[in-house]
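In this notebook, the sequence line spells out the residues, with the fold written below as integer tokens. This is how one looks.
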Amino acid sequence: MKPIPKQVEPVFLEGLKLISRGKVCELYTGLPGRPDLGLKVISDRASAHDIILPFPVPNKGIYLNLIDWWWRQQMPWVRHDVVAIGPKIDEYLPKEHRGKPNLHRRARIISLLQALMVELVFRWLLTGTGLKKYRQNKGVVCGQKLVDGLVEWSEINPSVATPTTKDPDGHDVHMDLDEAVRRFGTSPFELTHPLFEVGRRIAATHGIMIADTKFEVGRNERGELVLIDEVLTSDSSRFLPEKEVQMARTTPGYKPASFDKQPIRDYLLNVLGVGAETPLTDEVIANVHNHRYPDDIGEETTARYEKLHKMLTGMTAVGHLGTLG
């Protein structure tokens, strides 16, 4: 388990059993009469390059909760793990945890499923680690030969699956698609790749491009594949303003402002020298945890989550929460 700095340690919910604690979320069981369900609480913690940061991003968990739920409502045909959100979670909680606005804003009731140990990553715009692998491997990414001559922000048509390992303690590693299919079958990709395409088309109507995303899936007691974890959020996807991508394609050195943790990642790289492939040594983690950060870096990052939510949903967080029952 990755260490959580004291500044962002969670407040645990008494009377429930904490069964997992991730970079952002806690998962509890012990819901009255429902051993098949859990309470997932989405915090304001942020991580970059698999290191949990020592400061919160205010209201980040609320925006993640709302954006994820909005996307699931756009895809009602998809079997997923969320059972209740907003005030409706009270129907499943012990009495002492009902009626708590903070839980209504950032928690959800989910089905407890067995997750497949693979991250289903899909890319449409060439950037990030996909671009790096393309350059290093003469156009080959995850065992797939892409067309020659692509540059950053080029479209990959059709979009491609570039799966990674799911490593709880280190960096995820790219897998050849053939190896992922051998281990997990084609079904996880057949379920999720169309969702990426639907998401891209919907986002485009709001002036947004989705460069890449990752999905996760699990199996229920009947062996059926179920969409789990987060769906097309700022923590799982690279959202970019379409106008800024077009500018980046014609203006050398211009970098689009993505709707995610990019201000934090840029700071870590430029000031501390920590990037996507930096070894996660104790010294590196301690340097990130002990550094004094600018006071406004959390708020600057929140603003990007807030803007994406407003562009997609047309609502403020308060207004959106009011629709949840």
Remarks:
- The mean pLDDT is 95.
- The radius of gyration is 20 Å.
- The longest strand covers residues 208-219.
- The chain has two domains: 1-112, 115-262.
